[in-house]
Amino acid sequence: MRAQLRRGGVAESVIDDAVLILSELLSNACKHGRPLGDALSGDGDVRAAWRVDPSGRLIVEVTDGGGPTRPAPATPSVTAHGGRGLNIITALADDWGVRDDSSGEVTVWVVVHDDVYDPDAGHRRDDFATRVTAPAVSQIPGLDFADAFDDMD
Question: Keywords, A to Z (predicted)?
């Protein structure tokens, strides 16, 4: 994937985002989706694809056999071991969604970047940490550790 996109002139920062997004989509498909094909025989799998469309958008897709719930961002607790994948995708991507077909296949598609040939293609990466990081403890109103220690005298 990397080499093909690089040869196509896609910015390295966009490729990095695409690889992370693809990893999250594949993890979600393996954890939550049914395999494609005959699941009873064990011949099922998932399908991944990426392309730069004619308007210059890099699109990544993963298709599986559907699952018990619809893909949606979660609100995991701070100590949860998962549930952040679609939030990461939302933070990195320009757009994403879910497409169902009549055979039961479900495809999650992501527009990684609207214009991979734009010299500012990594613009979303610049503020990624700000968008996904919790505020510093000192910035949380009503949480004053000094008062808690005063009571220990």
Answer: Kinase, Serine/threonine-protein kinase, Transferase
